[in-house]
Fold each of these.
Amino acid sequence: MPTKSTLALAIAAGLTWSAGAQAQETVKVGVILPYSGPFADAANQLDAGIKLYMQQNGDMVAGKKIEIVRKDTGGPAPDVAKRLAQELVVRDGVDIIAGFALTPEALGAADVATQAKKLMVVMNAATSVVTEKSPYIVRTSVTIPQVNYAFGKWAFEKGGVKQAYTLVADYGPGHDAEKSFAKGFTEAGGTIVGADKTPVANPDFSAFVQRVKDASPEAVYIFVPGGGQPAAIGKALSERGLTPPATRIFGQGELTHPEALESMGGNARGIVTTFHYTLEREEPLNNAFVAAYREANNSRSPDLFSIGGYDGMHLIYEALRKTNGDTSGDALVEAAKGMAWDSPRGPISIDPETRDIVQNVYIREVQEVGGKLQNVIIDTIENVKDPLHGASN
Amino acid sequence: MADPSANQATIAGTQAWIRRQGRWSPYEIAFWIAVFVPFFFFPTYLTLASQIAIAALFALSVDLILGYAGIITLGHAMFFGLGAYAAGLLTKTGWGEPLTGLLISGAFVALVGFVVSFVIVRVQHLALLMITLGLGLLTLELANAMSWLTGGTDGLQGVSVWPIFGTFDYDLWGYTAYSYTLAVLFVGLLIARRIVHSAFGLSLRGIRENLNRMPAIGAPYQRRLQVIYTISAGMAGVAGALLTQTTSQVALDVLSFQRSADVVVMLILGGTGRLYGGIIGAIIFMVARDQLAGINPQYWYFWIGILLMIVVLVMPKGILGFLAQLWERIRR
């Protein structure tokens, strides 16, 4: 039906044209996040980061007004994320797509960024491979190998641990964390004496912790999803006497984030974690960020999602400034490559080759400060790149 | 079904009745004309329209067992998801042709459905609900555990589907995706129509109404239920395969309980035991979801809940059932 499709194309072209005409004054940013469903909390924290940045920096950049169009995936739902990205491009006429709390959703939308030639800013999804899926993707969050590979090396070289046990949740991020920690640790000279995987939903940790105890390792590396699990595993560990300093406990930052610390109580003392953002890091930029964030969000503290959204917006603003308002995907990606700035988390930059973030990795220990448990930075590994990029080539 | 002692006239009468039931009504024809409307008036909604068509095919497959044969299920996403993964894995073996991919995935899932049906036909009511629910959850966990095959939570990577007939590639607007899914939905509906308006379809309704009575009139039910369950599973598998092919994505959510529940919600909204109930339900559910989520990304499910409650309270037979009743009343 040549006539039908010509007509439809004509209408379509008309709509794009009007969207294009509008883009003269505004830059539309489509934000795709799981605003509803099990990851709604993460999405809202990320969104609060976006809002705070815009509140502090205004919505005008390079003479254009920034407009945010929010879309919910209810995810994890890559097919929905892909459809929303398509719709944002063809219907809403967005110039940039952003958000992406979850890896499958970022991977789902990646093809659309390539096809439509739009800048895609990944503000959370933490699997290494994400940025390789499209030349238009730039990431402002973190990758799991980035923080854990460096941590594995550190554990042997500076942590003084010769052998360790790994205990991770049995899903993608857990597997990644286990692999990269073990890689860093063994490359440095350490030995992994045992590895176990716990169920993602409602695990009973006591049996697993007992197995760890029977192996009596110097240290145990733990990765569990946030929520109620850090407290549960903390309790299981202390019940069986697996506590620092007798047994060192390592993990990624989520294990000891403020809410988890509160529910873990004294069990958390001495746990060493690795992360790219530390709420308590004493530094003027971070202090101001935390204070402003708490004020805007009912005294809720920012977390890794918030900082990903905040820095993602900074990248969008600065890239637009550099291109002088040119919103073409190619120009924006070029502008983003190699960009470096001071974020509340510390100095960060975008690797021009992989378009992935380069940042400091902080090694923190849970200590009591003024009667309250918090993550105290005991070491900083500077300018860490994701160790997996290019590894497959 | 034929009773050997019945005379020729009764048989002829029954056959004529079945044929009459199977005639195309003007509403149906109007509906199939209306599906072309998005091409001209909502070209920016074609991707959504293609996903609605997929959901409609899935709902149709559930209607065949739930609406016509009375097999309640809360785990049909199992077949949808298996179809989706089958289609995705097939492209990874190097065969990305979509039409044969659809058939192979459908056949594979029908086979799984056939195996499962041996359990399904032996239980009823709550036990059936629990078994379908359990099988669905087990499949999801299995897919999660077998991340070497399925990609786990990150989803299956490297799915690449060839253009349809080697020429029509999947565009950003969704012209190809919608045309393709619509065509498959139409074929699915033709098959469902043929089944429903046949002696076999009639016997299914008999089973739904009174399970114990059917053997008494010489119609054993287990074999029939197995047949329809297998067909339904295959159709759900084709719907899942369509999703993979049009989005080149497969992730664990294709197997989720949410998907099994949503499809039942669609059916209840539209009306069970009517071929178009699932289709209308899918349209209303997906459009409402899209619009409500656009207005308020955080709390749209609240409004879906309200909508469902209103429909269930005011129109117990679904929207189509309600319209049919209304029509009856006007005619009288």
Note: The mean pLDDT of chain B is 87.
Amino acid sequence: MAESTTPAPGSPDQFTPLHSEREIHALTRPSLSYWQDAWVRLKSNTRALISLYLVLGLLAFTVIGPMIWTVDPSAQDVDQVSRPPGADRAARVVEPYKPWDGSVAVVDGERLQLADTPTNQAVRLIWPAAPGAESYWIYRNILPVDENSAKGLPLIELFGNGTTHFEDRLDLAPRIYYYTLVALDGTGVPVHRETLAVDVKRVVTVEEAVGRGLADSAEDLLVSDVVHLALHPLGTDYLGRDMLARLMHGARVSLFIGIFAPLLYVLVGVIYGSAAGFVGGQTDQAMMRFADFVVALPFLLFMILFKIAFGIGPGESGVMPMLVAMVVLLWPSTSRLVRGQILQIREEGYISASRLLGARAGYLILRHMIPNTMGVILVTVTFAIPSAIFTEAFLSFIGMGVAPPTPSWGSMCNDGIKTMLTTPHELIFPALLISITVLAFNLLGDGMRDALDARMRSTE
Amino acid sequence: MTKHTPANQDSFTSSAGRQLLAFGAASIAGVIVLMMALSWASSLTSTGSISTDAVDVTNNTLTLFLREEPPQLNSSLSTDTVSGSVLGHVMEGLLRYDEHNRLAPGIAERWEINEDGALFHLRPDARWSDGKSLTAHDFVFAWQVALDPKTASEYSFILYPVKNAEAINKGELPLSDIGARAIDDRTLEVTFERPIAYFDKLVAFSTYYPIRQDFYESTDGSYGSDAHTLLYNGPFVISRWVHGANLLMEKNPEYWDLDRAKVDKLDFAYITSDASATLNLFKDDKIAYATLQAENLNNAMEQGWDIFRFMDGSVFYIEFNHRPERPTRNLNLRKAMLYAQDSAELVFKVTKLPGYLPGVSLFPVWLQGVNTFFRQEYPAPRAQLNLEKARYHLELAKQELGVEEIPPLVLLTGDNPISNIQSEYYQQIFSKNLGLDLKIDKQIFKQRLAKMLSGDFDLVLAGWGPDYDDPLTFADLFASFNLNNRGRYENPEFDKWVRVAQSSQDVQERMDAFGEIQQILFDDVVIIPNYERGITYVTHPQMRGMVRRAVGPDPDFTNAYIVE
């Protein structure tokens, strides 16, 4: 019987205790509150974060913008009407405009010619009387004209053979124009036609330059100096008003309505909905039917009624009735949502426990119910903001909103759409801002819905 | 088992693909069928307009548009230019305007006018569109209808030169006392209330058009409300009128001068006032002419279209409210505003349309004077932009009104692109130059007229188009007895000169009176002239002979013809 040195299986010698690994169970991160966690998750959502910055940027654009860019949004710069961004602004200083009687210093008398330097103030044409002519037509084109092509804009018809000069002052821009003179005989048959290319230069008078703040005083300016017309970074509209300043001031109206109206009507909706949901029963039924009734009221009609009831006269801003109409008519959707949530929460165990412990209704609503519906409420607000901005833009677009000269993005779109094909910047900028704002608020709302959903709390 | 799996998967995906394909094909086919069905259905409902080209050579038809649904085709009630244009094609008065805008014989082939009255000899071959003869009685009846207080025609005043007309219109005399008598079927005798120098021009106006009694009474008050409740005597008849959508005119076979109308049909296939819509229709060769707005001018030049221009004869101005309770009653305030603005800047820099002339006077440039144009013989006094003078008058106005600041003024304006720009321009100009606060009250045409009538404004952007070819059509506007004097301007001196112009037979004396009126309008700043309107338009190169006119039906396609 051989004695084995190997310990018998199961003996305690075969077991060595592992070293303790207590640190595994230690918490790897500090405890996060609901709001901190929501913020962390919002930060990890790139789209929502960009939207948040955009919204903050818009607020800065609206609030701080007008302090930096102090141009009056209703000031008309008639020298630069419908000017796209980045247009040339150099202008030569000239003598004030004087009416012209057709006299000219030197005439060579052979053909259609200029009587004076062509400027955007006036182009003065003079020509010899054509034999047999009974009337003259002057045309202007922006494209070169030959014998067969269209002559362009008919500027004037001069009767009789006596008048052989014409002064064009109509909306002259610094560019090359092609003037065509057509002489007609008594029966309307052309007897003579010729075309002159005219290179128009931009000018400004001393008085205009000082009046528009381009120079400090008249003494500083000499005729033939070059000044630069007022800068309009985003161009001007159909009355020469600065687009950037108008967009900034327009944003005030748009964002005021866009933020205040939803805040107010969501607040009304929350109070109404939570009351209905909490009380329940017959009261709930009655309150919700009333909400259904409000939903059925036509918004536009009430908007007009409020405008009349408020005594908003002609030429006064319709922003306040718009705000009131929105608050009075748009709360039911929020109240329904909140009521549903409250009905659900009311039956939860912790509510019953709290009730057993003697909590009163006010405490239950404020401490337990509202915080638990906060996610839904915030999301409603962020989705209500873009829709309110849209409503304002729409109402201003159809002329129910702001009164001129106050701009709003919607009314600017309305003005811009008329000249969409020729000067698209007047429509594009406000439309772009509306789109960006609405998209930013929507994406932010989307991100907030994800971030505030308690069931999606970070578990890692 | 395992080796079958890929095959199974294959057959599964391919069958799913087939299903998807079949579903897609079915849905596309369904959509196509639906679209064809809808297109067929829509072709059933639309009442024609098969011709797709603006100028249809084979059917000798022109396709055109109307700016709006003609509001009133009853010639005794009609007031607006669209109705006037339509009526000008389908009706004819004693006299009419021809293609050179000269007065020409219409239903009357000869006439004599003297101090006491006029005698019109009607054509024997003048007929109504139902083939019955047109007689002098039809004119007498039409004028009685227009003067009947029950008709309440806004244009009844234009008949006042006829003896007893004013009294009849006020209900003081019976209709039968009218100073117009049918001596026989072919002869119409008119007696004047007082001597009148321009009666031949008046009878071309639509209120003077004939109406046949039996037909008028058979329509039971709906005369002119539809194509079949109107009897025609002009070169065209309305053969189809779909309200708000389109209107078709066909040549009138009963018209006395069958050669006058060159085309067989005028199809007003669109009724729209949207300038960009009409321009697009023109671009697509759907209509034969279109009006241009300032923003389309460059586009039109790039398209190489032939562009036309014409002065429609109307004058636009800021009218003040002269009622006692209004601050604008103060002459110095009005003067301040006059010197604080420059109509040339408005026209050349803001409205930017060729054909607009900066406003200087209530009398437009085309009015005839004694020998040449009125404005050449009587140059209008001009106010140059002068801010010092303007502010001086503003200070005087503040003292006289006893206020620190002028209260906000209401600027009543119409709802169209030009009025919008103009009102915002003036709002800024008066705010910048005088510190005045203007509230813009934008109203549709009808509402604006109602507010003008009730005096619910301080300033209004108003305009006036001529009814007949005489300076008086403008001159009597601000007479205290004229209902169209919406600002209630009252000046006995002004009224005196209007009376002179109305009753004098002497051209020189009348023109002198108009000169005095022009001076009073300037001295009293009754209005601030803004512009004389011009219209810039494009026409189809194959359409010729379209007539535009300041006085009379405009546009007029009666003489239009198609070239190949």
Note: Chain B has three domains: 22-36+312-534, 40-46+53-72+225-311+535-562, 81-218.
Amino acid sequence: MSASHPDRPLSREESAGYDRKVLDYIRGAAAHGLYEIRGLGAKRALPSFDDLVFLAGSATRYPLEGYREKCTTKTVLGTRYAKKPIVLDIPITFAGMSFGSLSARVKESLGRAATELGTSTTTGDGGMTQEERRSSKTLVYQCLPSRYGFNPDDLRSADAIEVVIGQGAKPGGGGMLLGQKVNPRVARMRTLPEGIDQRSACRHPDWTGPDDLTIKIEELREITDWEKPVYVKVGATRTYNDVKLAVHSGADVVVVDGMQGGTAATQTVFIEHVGIPTLAALRQAVEALEEMDMRGKVQLIVSGGIRTGADVAKALAMGADAVSIGQGALMAMGCNGSSWFGGGAHHDATADYAAIGTAPGFCHHCHTGKCPVGITTQDAELELRLDPTMAARHLKNYFKTMTMELTTVARACGKSNVHHLEREDLVALTIEAAAMAKLPLAGTNWIPGVGHL
Amino acid sequence: MESVTADRAAVATRRFDLAHATVRDLNHFLHRELPGSGVTRVDVENPGGRHAIAAGIDHPVDVEVLGHGGYYLAGMNKHANVTVHGNVGWGVAENMMSGTVRVKGFASEAAGATGHGGTLIIEGDASLRCGISMKGIDIVVGGSIGNYSAFMAQAGRLVVCGDAGDALGDSLYEAVIYVRGRIKSLGADAREEPMTAVDLAAVAELLGRAGFPYAPSEFKRVASARSLYHWNADADQEY
């Protein structure tokens, strides 16, 4: 019997429901009996800030000159109860990422860049390293369910405290650090044996609901003599209610992390299927604050897929006081790049990507600890591939570029302060984004779900 | 601070009456004014179940709480010896680093949660989640403990002179639990193991610290089977 009839074309009708990605998933599940764990954030297309555009100055609005006229970026966080609020030069901050998921050199680089930029950086699930405390002028100390390495000395040395309830990449899911990243120092800081897979709890050990959280925050304030702002971070799910409860609990600052937010390691099913997009979460958070008459009293930081100056400007216009960036910062340092720099020369890393089964531009293998560019690793040799001086310079350039884009857009909208950007400056390009952000579809005054065509 | 009364007859002792002074006054004194003041003992009168009493101390001092405390009493304690002449709410001595906290009455949930060091002694019973996520603290409970105690406990020792509730030591790491009475059930990965000479000596020493008159030989040892230490398909997807 012949293999095929020469006149009959091969059938290549692909199924939308069982496309090659789903086939790969089913085959992988069948072969291994394990779900996939990976790093970074949601990869699927989602309604995002890209689906919004600004209505800048024209005959009806008066723009400011783009390069010369003053446009303030100063940002103050924690004005509600803290004796010492955080004062930043720009509204773009570094998101919490753990020592453990990242090397100490990366944490140091983040601190150096943040200090030079006049912004804050944040510890993560694994405690505070002395490298990051020394290098960071303004350091936010996370209080996480695991309490790995959590101690009163570091708490007192911090500039703000962030009680982490959830993370956008994995709301309700806790954290993971696979054994290959648990070197002696990481193990010691977390009080656990070397090389074991570490599971960070999904809920706090000493409080459960918002009424308990109120008392917990009061304790943290008592321990630090009411000096430091207390942030509460939630992964974006029921954001409207979560923000209200965070405010009720006494937060000075609420951090909302959307589903595009990254992680060092969690189940793909969480990353892609749990939580809501940042765009929708931000709008819900702002509505909650407005309804409680807390806009401007409790500050709002949004994170999860903030990549560009345009994203920052749109987040601020929608009502955020600041943004936090994690994945973009890693990419500025070389994440997913094809080479690393050392000894005055670039070194090709594609073979190292291939060795962990991926390629530059597609890598989400932070969980393996074998980061080919030396960022998400605890390997003594790999981590040397990141030069803290160069990494800090790239981070600084990246944040500076975004700040310039932010102020340029703000000026075009006629604002001499980036915090004066407002919802009225924005319209949506898609019906989905219009509905989630509650902004009119461009060229109409139609907001889906709100009414009036 | 007119509401704070100082005992001028004995300068080494300072009294705070929380019927008049605030917890913030008390803690401010303990954090900022105590070091170098010569005060070696602080009496807290009328604590009235207030929260965060004596939280965040970073200096050697004896604190006597003359009544009931609320949540997080002596939270994150370092160096101090705190005695509560009453009951306490959630999270007594949470995240303690060093020193001693003794509760003469009962303790509510999450007693000694995430503690890194020091000794927590509860003369009565402790409620749910006693010793949750403990990281090196020693906890000695004169009575019984509630369900889910020592959940994900990483290091340190928990001695229970009475009974333990359901799911004791669930997802236990390297902490060790000693129970004199009945264990209602063990949690995932926790197992009973034989008492060795090292265990008997440890229990004797901890009972001695607490002043409880039991024989170490009456206790059972519970520790981790370590079967959840590595993520794999045979672990019934516990991760």
Note: Residues 49-437 of chain A form a domain with the TIM Barrel fold (CATH 3.20.20.70).
Amino acid sequence: MSIPEAATMIDVLLYALLAGLGVALVTGPLGAFIVWRRMAYFGDTLAHSSLLGVALALLISIHPTLSVVIVCLVLALILVVLQQQQNLASDTLLGILSHTSLAIGLVAISLMPSVKVDLLSLLFGDLLTVTAQDIVIIYSIGTASILLMILLWRPLLSITIHEELARVEGIPVTAVRSAFMLIIALEIAIAMKVVGILLITSLLVIPAATARRFARTPEQMALLASLMGCMAVICGLASSWFLDTPAGPSIVLCAGGLFLLSLIKKQ
Amino acid sequence: MKSPLIELSAIGHSFRGNRVLSDVSLTIKTGQIITLIGPNGAGKTTLVKIVLSLLKPDLGTVTRAPGLRVGYMPQKLHIDPTLPITLRRFLSLAEPSLQLCLNALAEVGIEKLIEMPLQSLSGGEMQRALLARAILRKPNLLVLDEPVQGVDVIGQEGLYRLIGQLRDRLDCGVLMVSHDLHLVMSATDEVICLNQHVCCHGHPDQVSTNPAFIELFGSRTAPYTHHHDHSHDSEDNGDNVHSGGGHHD
């Protein structure tokens, strides 16, 4: 892990912690919806496509956060259209797009010899190189995502329970679903730095699954999932700091450990 | 004569070239209970979706009375077990006022279950919960898709009685879909037999003696059997059943 020379060790740790917590706060409620709506594989597919977003950013020199959001949204749109038209089962379709988009990203990046890209940090995160600018991006996008989710909470819950009933009751289902896709795309763009493309879904699914065992209402589950995510970030970073393990995988490992612990509690 | 709540005329609809409805007309008036009955694939769900404006028909016109408020009870609710939600929270999605939710639950007789997780309700309790949510909207038209599904016979009678009471109290029209014939007979004002077109319709007593009805459902003791094969104008729904034996030689 390359540490900028100017930064002191404490700065590095503080930035990493702030970035991790910022992302974990959003993945809580978003992850709860991903779990309720059984969209884990969908999220994974979008996350895999973000490598293509990075390649695009390098190619036309725009900010990677922006291009990742755009690529994720385009892929989400393609998925929705294909799901309506194709006769393939949804998970087969996701499997095709998930791995194809990851492969396109890998090939595209390898075809650009002029830029040197640390592939490992893209795939598994590079929390210890977070900059002040990254923090600003994470917190502004994170705040926007949370506000959007609060605004859409009731309609989102309604369409999660029964989409047609929600439509009859006057909820603009297509608009709400599109906004939800946007939130997923935004979250992927900011979580990439923290746990990397391959591990983003774990940060969505594992804290939410852990929270389920303690929650009695949807809101409790969302808040507890944020809390579990934050705990995983703190434990993961601590282990990364003291044991010199890679930060992203350590955070996911801690989230997994918390889930295992939660199994002790009787339902 | 009461004015119609909704009027469908000469509705036709196809999915990917397969005609599922042709020339279906239907009028629902206040205070009237209409039951849609027909074999699987008869287009009942499609017709319900058109009434609910979830689907725009290819052909025909739909006229809704101004101020029409539709209460919808879907066929089944699949809620992921990971979603922690009580009956109270479920109803609050339609109506934030707790008192109104309690009133609706009392109306369907399950007010004691208000704090129960939705996933723990039995089949009959779940149907009543869905009915409570539908009436929370103070509808003048109730659309019920297989309202007694997954409910035992005694429970079914109770539910049909409840639907009749709700019709009287809310003074609304009711459109319901049913598989079950003899139970629904006493609970409905008009039966429409659908098999991609309207085979016959009218008062339950008249319908039950109608040749088209008997042809479609057979005797009243076997309401689920679909005896003859309607070929109509759909292209590929023909008889695919060959006599046994085969060509192995």
Note: The interface with chain A takes residues 49, 52-54, 70, 72, 74, 77, 79-80, 82-86, 89-90, 93-94, 133, 137 of chain B (CB under 8 Å).
